[in-house]
User: Fold these one by one.
Assistant:
Number 1:
Amino acid sequence: AAAIDYLENIGMDNVEKIVKVSEYESFQYLLWDIEKSVETKGRIITSLKVDGLNLDSLSDFSLEEISVVEVMSQSPLMLLKETIVELNDYIDKFFYGIEDIVYSFRNGDKIKGIDNLVEGIYGLEWIFQILKNSERLLYLRDLRLLDIYEKADSVMIELTEAIDNKDYHRISVLMEFPLYNVLSNIKEFIPILFEKTEVLTGVEVFIN
Protein backbone atom coordinates (compact mmCIF):
# COMPACT_ATOMS: atom_id res chain seq x y z
CA ALA A 1 0.00 0.00 0.00
CA ALA A 2 1.15 3.53 -0.69
CA ALA A 3 2.38 5.49 2.31
CA ILE A 4 -0.05 8.05 3.70
CA ASP A 5 0.88 11.36 5.31
CA TYR A 6 -2.12 11.51 7.63
CA LEU A 7 -4.07 8.94 9.54
CA GLU A 8 -7.47 10.40 8.80
CA ASN A 9 -9.55 9.04 11.65
CA ILE A 10 -8.58 8.52 15.25
CA GLY A 11 -11.77 8.44 17.24
CA MET A 12 -11.09 9.48 20.82
CA ASP A 13 -14.38 8.79 22.61
CA ASN A 14 -16.29 9.76 19.44
CA VAL A 15 -14.19 12.92 18.92
CA GLU A 16 -12.22 12.74 15.69
CA LYS A 17 -8.56 13.65 15.69
CA ILE A 18 -6.26 13.98 12.68
CA VAL A 19 -2.79 12.55 13.17
CA LYS A 20 0.26 13.15 11.00
CA VAL A 21 1.71 9.69 10.46
CA SER A 22 5.19 10.95 9.60
CA GLU A 23 5.56 12.16 13.18
CA TYR A 24 5.66 8.56 14.41
CA GLU A 25 8.34 5.94 13.83
CA SER A 26 5.88 3.09 14.20
CA PHE A 27 2.34 2.23 15.20
CA GLN A 28 3.62 1.37 18.67
CA TYR A 29 4.80 4.96 19.13
CA LEU A 30 1.36 6.15 18.02
CA LEU A 31 -0.23 3.88 20.65
CA TRP A 32 2.05 5.25 23.35
CA ASP A 33 1.05 8.79 22.37
CA ILE A 34 -2.64 7.85 22.53
CA GLU A 35 -2.17 6.26 25.97
CA LYS A 36 -0.30 9.33 27.20
CA SER A 37 -3.08 11.60 25.93
CA VAL A 38 -5.74 9.53 27.68
CA GLU A 39 -3.78 9.27 30.94
CA THR A 40 -3.20 13.04 30.94
CA LYS A 41 -6.97 13.44 31.09
CA GLY A 42 -7.10 11.09 34.07
CA ARG A 43 -8.87 8.35 32.12
CA ILE A 44 -8.27 4.67 31.32
CA ILE A 45 -8.43 3.06 27.87
CA THR A 46 -11.23 0.47 27.84
CA SER A 47 -11.30 -0.37 24.13
CA LEU A 48 -8.91 0.13 21.21
CA LYS A 49 -9.81 -0.94 17.67
CA VAL A 50 -7.85 -0.64 14.44
CA ASP A 51 -9.92 -0.68 11.27
CA GLY A 52 -12.78 -2.24 13.20
CA LEU A 53 -10.70 -5.00 14.81
CA ASN A 54 -9.81 -5.25 18.48
CA LEU A 55 -6.13 -4.57 18.95
CA ASP A 56 -5.66 -7.95 20.67
CA SER A 57 -6.60 -9.73 17.45
CA LEU A 58 -4.03 -7.90 15.33
CA SER A 59 -0.59 -9.34 14.66
CA ASP A 60 2.15 -7.59 12.67
CA PHE A 61 1.18 -4.45 10.77
CA SER A 62 2.48 -0.99 9.90
CA LEU A 63 1.07 2.53 9.84
CA GLU A 64 0.67 2.30 6.07
CA GLU A 65 -1.88 -0.49 6.49
CA ILE A 66 -4.16 1.44 8.87
CA SER A 67 -6.88 3.97 8.15
CA VAL A 68 -9.04 4.18 11.30
CA VAL A 69 -8.20 3.90 14.99
CA GLU A 70 -11.01 3.93 17.57
CA VAL A 71 -10.21 4.59 21.22
CA MET A 72 -12.72 4.43 24.06
CA SER A 73 -11.84 5.45 27.61
CA GLN A 74 -13.50 5.99 30.97
CA SER A 75 -12.73 7.77 34.18
CA PRO A 76 -11.35 5.34 36.79
CA LEU A 77 -14.30 6.09 39.08
CA MET A 78 -16.92 5.28 36.45
CA LEU A 79 -15.04 2.11 35.55
CA LEU A 80 -14.87 1.20 39.24
CA LYS A 81 -18.60 1.74 39.56
CA GLU A 82 -19.29 -0.74 36.76
CA THR A 83 -16.85 -3.19 38.34
CA ILE A 84 -18.60 -2.95 41.71
CA VAL A 85 -21.88 -3.87 40.00
CA GLU A 86 -20.09 -6.91 38.54
CA LEU A 87 -18.66 -7.70 41.99
CA ASN A 88 -22.11 -7.65 43.53
CA ASP A 89 -23.41 -10.12 40.94
CA TYR A 90 -20.27 -12.26 41.11
CA ILE A 91 -20.53 -12.80 44.86
CA ASP A 92 -24.07 -14.11 44.40
CA LYS A 93 -22.72 -16.61 41.87
CA PHE A 94 -19.83 -17.44 44.20
CA PHE A 95 -22.30 -18.56 46.87
CA TYR A 96 -23.65 -21.14 44.41
CA GLY A 97 -20.08 -22.08 43.54
CA ILE A 98 -19.38 -22.86 47.19
CA GLU A 99 -22.39 -25.15 47.26
CA ASP A 100 -21.09 -26.97 44.16
CA ILE A 101 -17.62 -27.42 45.67
CA VAL A 102 -18.98 -28.74 48.96
CA TYR A 103 -21.39 -31.07 47.15
CA SER A 104 -18.60 -32.44 44.94
CA PHE A 105 -16.25 -33.21 47.82
CA ARG A 106 -18.96 -34.76 49.97
CA ASN A 107 -20.00 -37.02 47.11
CA GLY A 108 -16.49 -38.17 46.29
CA ASP A 109 -16.06 -36.15 43.08
CA LYS A 110 -12.65 -34.76 44.02
CA ILE A 111 -11.62 -33.80 40.47
CA LYS A 112 -14.63 -31.55 39.92
CA GLY A 113 -14.32 -30.18 43.45
CA ILE A 114 -10.65 -29.29 42.97
CA ASP A 115 -11.26 -27.72 39.55
CA ASN A 116 -14.01 -25.51 40.98
CA LEU A 117 -11.90 -24.74 44.03
CA VAL A 118 -9.00 -23.50 41.89
CA GLU A 119 -11.39 -21.31 39.90
CA GLY A 120 -12.84 -20.03 43.17
CA ILE A 121 -9.42 -19.06 44.51
CA TYR A 122 -8.77 -16.98 41.38
CA GLY A 123 -12.17 -15.42 41.91
CA LEU A 124 -11.30 -14.52 45.49
CA GLU A 125 -8.12 -12.80 44.30
CA TRP A 126 -10.23 -10.70 41.91
CA ILE A 127 -12.72 -9.83 44.65
CA PHE A 128 -10.04 -8.55 47.00
CA GLN A 129 -8.26 -6.69 44.21
CA ILE A 130 -11.51 -4.79 43.59
CA LEU A 131 -11.77 -3.96 47.29
CA LYS A 132 -8.18 -2.68 47.31
CA ASN A 133 -8.81 -0.57 44.20
CA SER A 134 -11.97 0.79 45.81
CA GLU A 135 -10.02 1.85 48.88
CA ARG A 136 -7.48 3.67 46.74
CA LEU A 137 -9.86 5.40 44.32
CA LEU A 138 -12.51 6.27 46.91
CA TYR A 139 -10.02 7.35 49.58
CA LEU A 140 -11.75 4.83 51.79
CA ARG A 141 -10.62 4.03 55.32
CA ASP A 142 -13.12 1.80 57.06
CA LEU A 143 -12.59 -0.53 60.02
CA ARG A 144 -15.17 -2.91 58.57
CA LEU A 145 -12.89 -3.54 55.61
CA LEU A 146 -9.95 -4.21 57.90
CA ASP A 147 -12.07 -6.75 59.75
CA ILE A 148 -12.99 -8.39 56.43
CA TYR A 149 -9.31 -8.59 55.42
CA GLU A 150 -8.29 -10.11 58.76
CA LYS A 151 -11.02 -12.77 58.63
CA ALA A 152 -10.24 -13.54 54.98
CA ASP A 153 -6.52 -13.94 55.74
CA SER A 154 -7.33 -16.33 58.58
CA VAL A 155 -9.63 -18.41 56.36
CA MET A 156 -7.10 -18.52 53.51
CA ILE A 157 -4.32 -19.71 55.83
CA GLU A 158 -6.51 -22.56 57.06
CA LEU A 159 -7.78 -23.31 53.55
CA THR A 160 -4.23 -23.48 52.16
CA GLU A 161 -3.25 -25.89 54.94
CA ALA A 162 -6.30 -28.07 54.27
CA ILE A 163 -5.52 -28.13 50.54
CA ASP A 164 -1.90 -29.12 51.21
CA ASN A 165 -3.12 -31.95 53.47
CA LYS A 166 -5.82 -32.98 50.96
CA ASP A 167 -8.32 -32.69 53.78
CA TYR A 168 -11.45 -32.37 51.67
CA HIS A 169 -13.79 -32.43 54.66
CA ARG A 170 -11.95 -29.49 56.19
CA ILE A 171 -11.98 -27.64 52.86
CA SER A 172 -15.76 -28.11 52.67
CA VAL A 173 -16.30 -26.82 56.20
CA LEU A 174 -14.09 -23.76 55.60
CA MET A 175 -15.86 -22.94 52.34
CA GLU A 176 -19.34 -23.51 53.74
CA PHE A 177 -19.00 -21.44 56.88
CA PRO A 178 -16.02 -19.03 57.47
CA LEU A 179 -15.51 -18.18 53.79
CA TYR A 180 -19.24 -17.86 53.18
CA ASN A 181 -19.42 -15.45 56.12
CA VAL A 182 -16.54 -13.35 54.74
CA LEU A 183 -18.28 -13.05 51.38
CA SER A 184 -21.53 -12.16 53.14
CA ASN A 185 -19.70 -9.36 54.95
CA ILE A 186 -18.35 -8.08 51.64
CA LYS A 187 -21.83 -8.25 50.14
CA GLU A 188 -23.15 -6.17 53.05
CA PHE A 189 -20.35 -3.64 52.53
CA ILE A 190 -20.99 -3.11 48.81
CA PRO A 191 -23.74 -0.47 49.36
CA ILE A 192 -21.09 1.62 51.17
CA LEU A 193 -18.93 1.46 48.04
CA PHE A 194 -21.87 2.49 45.87
CA GLU A 195 -22.72 5.37 48.16
CA LYS A 196 -19.13 6.63 48.04
CA THR A 197 -18.94 6.42 44.23
CA GLU A 198 -22.25 8.27 43.92
CA VAL A 199 -20.91 11.09 46.07
CA LEU A 200 -17.74 11.38 43.97
CA THR A 201 -19.34 10.99 40.53
CA GLY A 202 -22.84 12.34 41.06
CA VAL A 203 -24.31 9.30 39.30
CA GLU A 204 -26.77 7.11 41.17
CA VAL A 205 -26.34 3.33 41.05
CA PHE A 206 -29.07 0.76 41.53
CA ILE A 207 -28.35 -2.81 42.62
CA ASN A 208 -30.50 -5.83 43.39
Number 2:
Amino acid sequence: YVKLVARSHKLKFRGILRVLPIMKAFICSMPRSGTYLMAKLLTLWGMTNTNYHFSEGFVEHRTQENIDRQRLDINEVNSNTQDFWHSIGHNQFAVGHLAPECHNLEQLKSFKRIVLIRDHTEIDNSLRSWSQLTGYDIKLLDSHKIIPDWRWVPDTFVCEFNRDLIGINIGKLDDLQRYLFGKVTHCSDATMQLAQASMTFTKSSSRP
Protein backbone atom coordinates (compact mmCIF):
# COMPACT_ATOMS: atom_id res chain seq x y z
CA TYR A 1 0.00 0.00 0.00
CA VAL A 2 1.03 3.61 -0.40
CA LYS A 3 0.78 6.03 2.49
CA LEU A 4 1.88 9.63 2.37
CA VAL A 5 2.84 11.21 5.66
CA ALA A 6 2.65 14.94 5.05
CA ARG A 7 4.45 16.13 8.15
CA SER A 8 7.68 14.29 7.48
CA HIS A 9 7.11 14.00 3.74
CA LYS A 10 7.85 10.28 3.74
CA LEU A 11 6.53 7.53 1.52
CA LYS A 12 5.83 4.01 2.75
CA PHE A 13 5.58 1.43 -0.02
CA ARG A 14 5.24 -2.30 0.68
CA GLY A 15 6.83 -1.89 4.09
CA ILE A 16 9.79 0.14 2.81
CA LEU A 17 10.11 3.68 4.17
CA ARG A 18 11.51 6.17 1.68
CA VAL A 19 12.25 9.83 2.40
CA LEU A 20 11.06 12.04 -0.44
CA PRO A 21 13.20 15.05 -1.34
CA ILE A 22 12.04 18.25 0.36
CA MET A 23 12.25 21.45 -1.68
CA LYS A 24 12.06 24.70 0.25
CA ALA A 25 13.42 28.04 -0.87
CA PHE A 26 14.76 31.27 0.56
CA ILE A 27 14.79 34.58 -1.29
CA CYS A 28 17.94 36.33 -0.09
CA SER A 29 17.84 39.81 -1.52
CA MET A 30 19.41 43.20 -1.31
CA PRO A 31 16.76 45.72 -0.19
CA ARG A 32 14.66 47.21 -3.02
CA SER A 33 15.75 44.45 -5.40
CA GLY A 34 12.46 42.70 -6.10
CA THR A 35 11.98 40.67 -2.92
CA TYR A 36 8.19 40.62 -3.06
CA LEU A 37 8.04 40.59 -6.84
CA MET A 38 9.95 37.30 -6.71
CA ALA A 39 7.73 36.12 -3.84
CA LYS A 40 4.65 36.77 -5.97
CA LEU A 41 6.23 34.89 -8.86
CA LEU A 42 6.93 31.85 -6.69
CA THR A 43 3.33 31.78 -5.48
CA LEU A 44 2.16 31.88 -9.10
CA TRP A 45 4.42 28.87 -9.65
CA GLY A 46 2.58 27.00 -6.89
CA MET A 47 4.83 27.59 -3.88
CA THR A 48 3.50 28.73 -0.48
CA ASN A 49 4.72 31.97 1.08
CA THR A 50 5.26 31.65 4.84
CA ASN A 51 5.30 35.48 5.08
CA TYR A 52 8.45 35.21 7.20
CA HIS A 53 11.01 37.98 6.68
CA PHE A 54 14.41 37.20 8.23
CA SER A 55 16.99 39.79 9.22
CA GLU A 56 20.12 39.34 11.30
CA GLY A 57 18.97 38.24 14.74
CA PHE A 58 15.19 38.42 14.29
CA VAL A 59 12.29 37.42 12.09
CA GLU A 60 9.06 39.25 11.21
CA HIS A 61 5.82 37.47 10.45
CA ARG A 62 4.27 39.73 7.86
CA THR A 63 0.63 38.71 7.80
CA GLN A 64 -1.35 39.01 4.59
CA GLU A 65 -3.41 41.82 6.12
CA ASN A 66 -0.26 43.82 6.88
CA ILE A 67 1.12 43.08 3.44
CA ASP A 68 -2.11 44.26 1.79
CA ARG A 69 -1.96 47.45 3.86
CA GLN A 70 1.77 47.88 3.15
CA ARG A 71 2.51 48.40 6.83
CA LEU A 72 5.97 47.75 8.24
CA ASP A 73 5.38 48.87 11.82
CA ILE A 74 2.71 46.41 13.00
CA ASN A 75 4.34 43.08 12.23
CA GLU A 76 5.03 40.35 14.75
CA VAL A 77 8.77 40.40 15.56
CA ASN A 78 10.54 37.49 17.22
CA SER A 79 14.21 37.08 18.16
CA ASN A 80 13.88 33.29 18.51
CA THR A 81 14.37 32.51 14.84
CA GLN A 82 14.99 28.76 15.09
CA ASP A 83 11.32 27.83 15.53
CA PHE A 84 10.49 29.78 12.39
CA TRP A 85 13.30 28.18 10.36
CA HIS A 86 12.19 24.71 11.42
CA SER A 87 8.55 25.38 10.53
CA ILE A 88 9.30 26.00 6.83
CA GLY A 89 8.24 22.88 4.99
CA HIS A 90 8.14 21.34 1.55
CA ASN A 91 7.23 23.70 -1.30
CA GLN A 92 7.30 26.71 1.04
CA PHE A 93 9.57 29.75 1.05
CA ALA A 94 10.64 32.72 3.14
CA VAL A 95 12.49 35.94 2.38
CA GLY A 96 15.14 38.13 3.96
CA HIS A 97 18.32 40.16 3.70
CA LEU A 98 21.01 37.84 5.08
CA ALA A 99 24.72 38.17 4.41
CA PRO A 100 26.73 35.06 3.41
CA GLU A 101 28.17 34.61 6.91
CA CYS A 102 29.02 31.18 8.32
CA HIS A 103 25.90 30.90 10.50
CA ASN A 104 23.64 31.82 7.57
CA LEU A 105 25.42 29.38 5.28
CA GLU A 106 24.70 26.65 7.81
CA GLN A 107 21.09 27.72 8.30
CA LEU A 108 20.37 27.81 4.58
CA LYS A 109 22.26 24.71 3.49
CA SER A 110 19.03 22.73 3.01
CA PHE A 111 17.28 25.55 1.12
CA LYS A 112 17.16 26.49 -2.53
CA ARG A 113 18.77 29.93 -2.36
CA ILE A 114 17.51 32.65 -4.72
CA VAL A 115 19.71 35.76 -4.50
CA LEU A 116 18.45 39.09 -5.86
CA ILE A 117 20.93 41.86 -6.58
CA ARG A 118 20.81 45.44 -7.82
CA ASP A 119 23.17 48.38 -8.37
CA HIS A 120 23.94 50.17 -5.08
CA THR A 121 23.14 53.63 -6.47
CA GLU A 122 19.75 52.44 -7.73
CA ILE A 123 19.02 50.93 -4.31
CA ASP A 124 19.95 54.15 -2.52
CA ASN A 125 17.67 56.16 -4.82
CA SER A 126 14.83 53.68 -4.34
CA LEU A 127 15.26 53.70 -0.55
CA ARG A 128 15.21 57.49 -0.52
CA SER A 129 11.97 57.55 -2.50
CA TRP A 130 10.48 54.84 -0.30
CA SER A 131 11.41 56.77 2.87
CA GLN A 132 9.79 59.94 1.53
CA LEU A 133 6.65 58.02 0.61
CA THR A 134 6.24 56.00 3.81
CA GLY A 135 8.19 57.87 6.50
CA TYR A 136 10.32 54.79 7.22
CA ASP A 137 14.02 55.61 7.41
CA ILE A 138 15.63 52.58 5.77
CA LYS A 139 19.29 52.56 4.71
CA LEU A 140 21.52 50.16 2.81
CA LEU A 141 23.70 48.49 5.47
CA ASP A 142 27.20 47.08 5.01
CA SER A 143 25.75 43.59 5.52
CA HIS A 144 23.37 44.23 2.61
CA LYS A 145 26.23 45.25 0.32
CA ILE A 146 27.87 41.82 0.54
CA ILE A 147 24.71 39.85 -0.26
CA PRO A 148 25.92 39.49 -3.90
CA ASP A 149 28.76 37.33 -2.52
CA TRP A 150 26.22 34.52 -2.19
CA ARG A 151 26.93 33.95 -5.89
CA TRP A 152 30.13 32.17 -4.88
CA VAL A 153 28.22 29.62 -2.79
CA PRO A 154 27.57 26.45 -4.81
CA ASP A 155 23.97 25.65 -5.81
CA THR A 156 22.81 29.25 -5.42
CA PHE A 157 20.71 30.99 -8.08
CA VAL A 158 21.32 34.70 -8.72
CA CYS A 159 18.93 37.13 -10.45
CA GLU A 160 19.59 40.77 -11.31
CA PHE A 161 16.65 43.09 -10.64
CA ASN A 162 16.50 45.09 -13.87
CA ARG A 163 17.80 42.57 -16.39
CA ASP A 164 16.10 39.41 -15.14
CA LEU A 165 12.98 40.53 -13.23
CA ILE A 166 11.84 43.86 -14.67
CA GLY A 167 13.20 42.95 -18.11
CA ILE A 168 11.55 39.49 -17.90
CA ASN A 169 14.55 37.41 -18.91
CA ILE A 170 12.60 34.33 -19.96
CA GLY A 171 15.65 32.10 -20.28
CA LYS A 172 16.79 33.02 -16.79
CA LEU A 173 13.35 32.50 -15.28
CA ASP A 174 13.01 29.14 -17.04
CA ASP A 175 16.38 28.18 -15.51
CA LEU A 176 15.05 29.24 -12.11
CA GLN A 177 12.10 26.88 -12.52
CA ARG A 178 14.49 24.05 -13.40
CA TYR A 179 16.58 24.93 -10.33
CA LEU A 180 13.51 24.73 -8.07
CA PHE A 181 11.34 22.03 -9.65
CA GLY A 182 13.64 20.15 -12.01
CA LYS A 183 11.61 21.31 -15.01
CA VAL A 184 9.70 24.27 -16.44
CA THR A 185 6.16 24.02 -15.08
CA HIS A 186 4.73 27.46 -15.97
CA CYS A 187 5.09 30.09 -18.67
CA SER A 188 7.77 32.40 -17.27
CA ASP A 189 6.74 35.34 -19.44
CA ALA A 190 3.04 35.22 -18.55
CA THR A 191 3.56 34.60 -14.83
CA MET A 192 6.12 37.38 -14.48
CA GLN A 193 3.78 39.78 -16.27
CA LEU A 194 1.09 38.81 -13.75
CA ALA A 195 3.53 39.28 -10.87
CA GLN A 196 4.56 42.71 -12.11
CA ALA A 197 0.93 43.76 -12.45
CA SER A 198 0.14 42.69 -8.88
CA MET A 199 0.19 45.03 -5.89
CA THR A 200 3.09 43.46 -4.03
CA PHE A 201 4.41 44.52 -0.62
CA THR A 202 6.81 47.53 -0.85
CA LYS A 203 6.21 47.89 -4.61
CA SER A 204 7.57 51.16 -5.92
CA SER A 205 4.94 53.70 -6.94
CA SER A 206 7.07 54.48 -10.01
CA ARG A 207 6.56 50.96 -11.34
CA PRO A 208 3.15 50.27 -12.95
